Structure to design on (424 residues):
């Protein structure tokens, strides 16, 4: 019982190198407080995100996934996030359609100057995932 | 009427092969079982009378096109022609290589003489691309309840949806027939065969099975023409269309894209609009 009460979600955050990762850095240097449940994976661009990464992360047993990149129009590679947005729209709706709870998968645009927004996003994501409890669907038991 | 069409296909094929306009004609011949037709490949003009056309010619012949180098004459109904358009768009075959013998389709039937579900909601019975048309064009109509099943499913609760997915996919024996039968699953190396990274385990673990099918279905976005090849090929009768239809519906509602109608239109994932929907992004 005690184990259940102490449960903390594991959240994977895929952050784009040029904006969201720098945003997370800024949140750090600004000493902003946010939940420590998130593990960051840095990707070169949100367009680099293979949508299967999200499913793979769930398979490995994470409780929530956040994907974050530059605001539309701000992409370092000009159009990477525009392309990413289309893929995210499809994978998001497909995962909800097959029964992954909407609160598990999150997407956001966080720029390098938005340390505050980054902390806020992490707070809401963590809250949402906490409400849902541990992920059981798709987890591969080994 | 049906025999007439078979005769016409044979004449066209013979002429093409004799004049050396094509190296091979892909069409249908009589199957080994009653009420069946099987794809056939004809190189010799004298053998063209093997070609037939009836209501069992359901297979999607576009599946045999990717990466071919020779000149091909192909018999194509509505869904085949749309798959051919996808393959041309994605540069898997050149338009100049193809001589498309279009056949308007009134819907195909299964072994029990009942029409296929996907034929009942088909909106493109006439080939969208062809060099010669056999028979008269048939009347087409917009189907209002095309996505009826999808909409019904969308309203279910998350756990019910997941239960259905699990119950369907737990039947899967990982034979990969769905992938092999699909005309737009043409990758030389599929993500499930890759070793570095190893995306999917090789056992019949349910989580891996679901990963494979979700991945495959996702890859069908903007490609699936709802031809039913995966459903026909599946030995375990898994209801893939419940999920692939969602993808076609999303491509239509989110990007206003309908698969395989025009070779000059770019597929949805190779392009974008600045005002694409993004209400799901914080």
């Amino acid at each position: 019982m005690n184990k259940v009460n102490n449960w903390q979600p594991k959240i994977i955050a895929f952050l784009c190198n040029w904006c969201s990762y720098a945003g997370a850095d800024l949140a750090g240097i600004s000493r902003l407080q946010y939940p420590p449940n998130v593990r960051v994976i840095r990707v070169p661009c949100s367009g680099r995100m293979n949508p299967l990464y999200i499913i793979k992360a769930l398979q490995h047993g994470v409780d929530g996934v956040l994907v974050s990149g530059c605001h539309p129009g701000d992409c370092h590679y000009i159009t990477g996030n525009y392309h990413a947005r289309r893929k995210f729209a499809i994978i998001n709706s497909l995962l909800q359609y097959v029964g992954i709870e909407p609160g598990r998968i999150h997407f956001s645009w966080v720029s390098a100057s938005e340390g505050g927004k980054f902390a806020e996003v992490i707070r809401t994501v963590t809250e949402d995932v906490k409400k849902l409890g541990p992920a059981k669907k798709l987890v591969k038991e080994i | 009427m049906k025999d007439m069409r078979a005769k016409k296909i044979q004449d066209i094929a013979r002429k093409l092969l004799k004049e050396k306009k094509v190296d091979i004609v892909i069409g249908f011949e009589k199957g080994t079982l009653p009420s069946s037709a099987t794809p056939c490949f004809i190189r010799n003009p004298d053998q063209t009378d093997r070609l037939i056309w009836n209501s069992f010619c359901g297979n999607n012949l576009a599946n045999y096109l990717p990466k071919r180098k020779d000149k091909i004459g192909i018999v194509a109904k509505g869904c085949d022609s749309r798959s051919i358009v996808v393959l041309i768009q994605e540069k898997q075959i050149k338009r100049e290589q193809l001589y498309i013998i279009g056949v308007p389709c009134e819907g195909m039937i299964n072994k029990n003489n009942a029409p296929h579900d996907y034929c009942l909601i088909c909106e493109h019975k006439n080939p969208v691309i062809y060099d010669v048309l056999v028979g008269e064009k048939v009347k087409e109509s917009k189907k209002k309840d095309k996505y009826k099943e999808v909409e019904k499913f969308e309203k279910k609760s998350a756990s019910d949806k997941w239960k259905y997915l699990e119950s369907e996919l737990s039947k899967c024996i990982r034979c990969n027939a769905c992938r092999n039968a699909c005309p737009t699953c043409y990758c030389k190396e599929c993500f499930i065969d890759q070793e570095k990274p190893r995306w999917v385990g090789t056992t019949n673990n349910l989580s891996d099975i679901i990963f494979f099918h979700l991945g495959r279905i996702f890859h069908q976005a903007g490609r699936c023409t709802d031809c039913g090849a995966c459903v026909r090929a599946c030995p375990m009768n898994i209801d893939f269309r419940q999920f692939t239809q969602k993808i076609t519906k999303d491509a239509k509602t989110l990007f206003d894209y309908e698969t395989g109608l025009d070779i000059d239109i770019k597929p949805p994932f190779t392009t974008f609009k600045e005002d694409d929907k993004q209400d799901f992004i914080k």
Summary: The helical segments of chain A are 2-5, 20-29, 51-59, 80-98, 115-132.
